[in-house]
């Protein structure tokens, strides 16, 4: 059998990001060994807020270009309490996503076995969504500025950029994804009553692209009404597409509704695959629990399953998710964010044992 080698760039980042990525690399090694059909060649990068404090840069100037040599990127989290969040976000995450044109941020949300939702009475069959977030422009395009600092006429602007090409490609991606899911249901989220340029363009393009997907049922929602629908009628939703800002907020709500931010994964995809995609948990560096050994690694394991699927290793991805689900089903293996007492080490060991078929 030929063994295919995938080159993985691992960027743990800061805080618990490093802890969950280290745990995940152990799990990936066990999977590759069990599968036998592929190998992972991992390179670790120390790009982080620590590096920024030492050198003035989160990553080298050609950092994004260095990543082009890899098949995928596994990312932990970046950020520290004493460095402003906007410096961190632009210093590392967006400086990777934007040049590598990872324009589709995909966030599956469902309740894993054994994990309960804070929504009363909702069961696993009623909450199964994929949120598609536009990841290259919109409100996070970085356009705008400040003038007249300190004066009463000081002005600060953040300009949202919506291009026809950018909106069309993300909406098309969302329709394609909805078409592959059993319910073939898509909700397009905007705020086109109040934001009368870019959001109206979204509505128009959605109606145009929908013509190419007659088998997909779709509807439009305003983002404010969407938060109510997610809580009151979770089973009425399946695939969801929204702008960079709106989907950022909706997906944190979705993560909380599915049980914990500690189990929510995301993938920053370049669907055309001409650059590597990046896989990460949605949570941050969580310095309040760093070093205590209690970070929940499940979000990172789940994103690693998305990475394996993207790399064409579907059987290994399925094996990993089956192992993760067998572990979440056991409350004695829940970390404190899920109300349990388990450690990162215990969860990781249990997932590895399940992969090896010993439980
Ligand atoms: P950021 O500034 O990037 O949002 P953060 O440090 O504020 O990062 P969040 O991801 O917002 O962290 O998480 C908020 C809180 O949720 C954390 O402070 C932590 O207590 C908890 N939390 C987040 N991720 C995990 C995890 N994987 N396991 C356990 N608890 C977590
Ligand atoms: Mg936070």
Question: In words, what does this structure look like?
Answer:
The chain has 359 residues and is α/β, with parallel strands linked by helices. α1 packs across α9 and α5 crosses α6. The longest helix has 20 residues. It is built from 11 helices and 12 strands. It is globular. A hairpin with a 7-residue loop joins β6 and β7. Bound molecules: adenosine-5'-triphosphate and magnesium ion. The site of adenosine-5'-triphosphate (ATP) has 18 residues, from loops. Pfam families: Iso_dh (PF00180).
- What is the CATH superfamily of the largest domain? Isopropylmalate Dehydrogenase
CATH level-1 class of the largest domain? Alpha Beta
Query: Which structural class is indicated by helix and strand composition?
Result: alpha/beta
Ions and ligands: adenosine-5'-triphosphate, magnesium ion
What is the count of β-strands? 12
Kindly give the count of domains. 2
Instruction: Please report which band the strand proportion falls in: under 5%, 5-15%, 15-25%, 25-35%, 35-45% or over 45%.
Output: 15-25%
Coarse morphology: globular
EC number: 1.1.1.83, 1.1.1.93, 4.1.1.73
Cofactor: Mn(2+); Mg(2+); K(+)
InterPro entries: ICDH/IPMDH (IPR050501), IsoCit/isopropylmalate_DH_CS (IPR019818), IsoPropMal-DH-like_dom (IPR024084), TTC_DH (IPR011829)
Function: Has multiple catalytic activities. Apart from catalyzing the oxidation of (+)-tartrate to oxaloglycolate, also converts meso-tartrate to D-glycerate and catalyzes the oxidative decarboxylation of D-malate to pyruvate.
